Amino acid sequence: MLAAGETPEFLGPIVALLVSAGLIGALFVRIKVVPIVGFLLAGVLLGPHQLGLIADEEAVHSAADIGVMLLLFTIGAEFSVERLSRIKRFVLGGGTVQVVLTTAVVTGLFALLGQDWRVGVFTGFLIALSSTAIVLKVIAAKGATQQPIGQAAVGTLIFQDLAIIVMVLLIPVLGGESDGGALGIARALGTAALVLTAVLVVARKVMPPLLERVARLCSPEVFLLTIVAIALGVAYVTSLAGISEALGAFLAGMVLSESRHSAHALSEIMPLQMIFSAVFFVSIGMLLDVGALAELWWMVLIAAAAVVVIKVATAYTAVAVLRVGAPTAMGAAFLLAQIGEFSFVLQQVGSDYGLTPAGLGAEGDQLLVAVTVLLMAATPALGALGGTLARRLPERAAPAPADGDGSEPSGDTRDRVLLSGWGPVSKNLGHYLKVNDVPVTVTTLSPDLAAEAEAFGHTVVRGEAIKAGVLHEIDMERVKLIVIAENSAEEATHVAHVLHGVAPGVPIVVRPTDAPDVAGLYEARVERVVDTHRAVTEPLGRTVLDLLKIDHVDMGRPNPTAVDLFRPDPDTACAHAETIQPVLPKSAGCTECLRQGRRDWIHLRLCTSCGFVGCCDDSPGRHAGLHADRFAHPIVRSVEPGETWAWCYLDSAMLDSADTPAEHP
Fold first, then answer.
1. What does pTM read for this prediction?
2. How far is CA 31 from CA 21, 26, 492, in A?
3. 147-161, 239-253, 502-516: which range is least confident on average?
4. Which domains does the chain have, with CATH numbers?
5. Fewer C-beta within 10 Å: the chain N or C terminus?
6. Please, which residues have CB within 8 angstroms of residue 647's CB and are 6 or more apart in sequence?
């Protein structure tokens, strides 16, 4: 414990790290350069070789290791197994050719210079790897993740990360201290394969039900702790088997990607990942000794130029052999023209066996750091250069899409309405918008409510609408209107503030669940506030369609403002009477029949849970019963003139009415 007034020793360095990284990163963003370059520069300035403001380098490097694990975890979560299979030719084909060809070229060059082949292979391993962290950041900033150039680069990077396992196992052989020779390597590779398979199988069995239970608590804090525990736990288990903990975190993320909670998990963990990733890039910059390189600057420039030439040539060849066209190959090649962060892992392993970059000892270590930092910083410029050259190359007609070509399935690309939260008001509004053919995206923390919204045909993103990961998943460019209808006025004001900052041009409509603080809501740049005390959702729906400039489709509804509430006789025995709610009839006829252009119903039934109007079981469509079965809405009432009864499909029971439809509010 610290005495009163005593400042902890670690606080000053941490403040210096965060402040400098934030300021320099902001400066680079202002000049339209990715902030990673600023983080690297901050590390150079704060490191022991310059200002020396950070004395505890070990703590920084430990935090950086966590940053790498969380970064690869989020990458894995965004790269599902299904999506990975669609770019498998880039992973297995392009990645294999790039790594093998780069290592062979470097080994050949060192042989021509009279160096031992082992030094050439080791240096080739170091150069073959590219920076997964920086390339993915650059691709995301350019919005090229789903483009052929981005997919080719990412596929190659994934193979490189997997190849690290083999490289680590081969380093003892290069150092002349292998245990068991080829048999030992084969045994180690087999063990690694078994461990990775076991991790994937167990994680797939355990993670989905665990996340489902945690998500039902609707606690962001508990959910975040669970996600971090999974990421670091799987990384720890794989490290015990001699496999890169970063690769273990990547596998955990890939398993998570198959879960319906992946977007929610990303939204919760992303702020934490960003902080630790920034520390990682600062730690890389701290390794550079600018003073010691004053006399070696010419070697740094020559080595950096050589690395760029070699990597562009080999990466271009690796992608070009897949017949994806010269522009794609050129753009991907320049994105991969740097040395990666995991080369430092190999460098550390190699030092234990007497191997150093280019066989130059300590001087080679500094040369590797300098070239790596320089090319990492130059990656955005190299990517832009590659894009410029790619646009000047003739595009060859692409072959017909095949299995594993990387193409993404097309979805509904129409403009849509975002409903923040799902509850009684949003449910009715969602139905009203669907009748008017307006696509809807719903955000909610509750798995049960998410499943219900999906059952109604809406796009659902699990998580809070104010989280960056959720907003990314939503694709805010297609959102033309935001509705906040399931929050109190205070909560709605906070949500509106955040969403207006993200999408300043998108109108926001709020219907708070309590008495609205109208002045506060309008200060949050809300376009329209709907009075909470109105008993129906139709005015809210009309407000939304008015703002969207869409004509209303009432489908012949005789009284669109009349809310229907069936009141069962108290003596009626039905276990599902509590599902009856005030509902707004969706149409004056069977909703599905009208959609299909039919009017062949015999009798009409009204769902007392959501207001769906369907045809009876004697009608050809039988849409009332089908709707009840699909959405688990058990009770329908007859809307035929003079009939006041309802029917429960689950209990197969008739419910008598306590009053008549004319008495309904």
1. 0.58
2. 15, 9, 35
3. 239-253
4. 11-391 (1.20.1530.20), 416-548 (3.40.50.720), 577-663 (3.30.40.10)
5. N
6. 605, 635, 636, 637, 638, 653, 654, 655
